[in-house]
Amino acid sequence: MRWIEAMAVGVAVAAGWWQQSPQAELPQAPAVPSMPTAAGPPGVQGPRFVVVVDAAHGGSDTGARIGGGILEKDITLGVSARLRSTLHAHGIDVVTTRQADTDVLPVSRGETANRAHGAACLIIHATATGSGVHLFTSSLSATGNTRFLPWQTAQSAYVTQSLKLESEIDSALAHAEIPVSLGRASVEPMDSMTCPEVAVEMAPLVGGHVTEARPVTDAIYQKSVVDAVTAALEQWRSDWKQ
Amino acid sequence: MITTLQKSLFFAMLAASVVMAAYLIRLRNRAEDRLQAQVAAAAPAAMGESAGNPNKVVTLYVPNDLDDSLTTVERNIPLPVDENAQARVLLENLIEAYRAPGATHPMSVATGINDVYFLAASEGRGQGGAGAGGQTAVVDLTGALAAAQPSGIEPETLTLLSMLATLHANLPRVTQVHFLVDGQSRETLAGHADLTRTYLAGDAERRPGAAGVGGAGR
Fold it and tell me: pTM for this structure?
């Protein structure tokens, strides 16, 4: 499996360098990432539990118009910051792909996630359509331990783990009485990430017999989603090595 | 001094100008009428293509944004003999369901499909492989549909899945679908769903949430 990730990171670095100016220095070759293992070697501490949070869109890529002039890129950044703080407070290390309103190429997002050796990667989206939270995993078919995988389908080796992570988040959101829908989708940079990953798309809450109508921008709603995701990741921390 | 002849000539030319102007206006109006008649005939082209053809019961997969599902709806519509025209009629009927009052996946777009054409399914182009002997449908969406498409992973994915499932359910030989917008390749439909890849048509029908196939998302 080391070869898979080595190749994925290599392609990411090469692609990232290609996007830069010709005068740009060659990026330092990254250390070959290792796939999280169930148990580390005897006497060596196990792999670090790191969560990668990707606030989708940013800069010139505004994403969806949520209504009232609010842009998806701003909501995703806000939710990402809130999630990072909450996870830190629970002793979970977080790596973010974007911390400001800047353009970040999908390949750079994948590269950041893969370099971080994320135990979980969450891609935050928002939409004005639907109700509750939509959870998506990659639409790639799960593959086993293949030696070489192209960058575009690197996630295929992690699909099974991604579905388990999705199930954890689904349970936590259901426990918080937030409507959830599950699906598979083909959205960049999901297919290039070498970690268990889930795209979390927040939609407005439609009022029902259990739920109260709330827009995506509602702070209480955002907090309840962040808290549920944090609870799921705490559970995942004890499950992810299995 | 203006002679009588000059006066007569002037009035004759004036009269000729008026007559010519009236004639040109009439010609312009007739051309405009012809053009409008052509546009009116072209607007429901997909439906018109099927006029005079025998009716057939078709299955449309209509998305529901609220529960992220596809619901099957049966319609009895005249279907043309030509397979390309059939695919176009099917998708135009599906888009008609998007713009119907009270639609569960609302989208206000007049014409959503420029054209549909078929290629022999290329091996391995679709992620996950393709069935042998199948066809790849290339669906050329209109820019108006892409512009009217609500942005988000869920709404964009539902639009594509409903088209994939509808095509595959009624034209089973269609195993793969590739999408274009106004004849051009495009990265995403409206900022999320990837249009650079070729989709497997059969996957959409088997998708959890599709009516009669499995449980819907909660």
Answer: 0.76
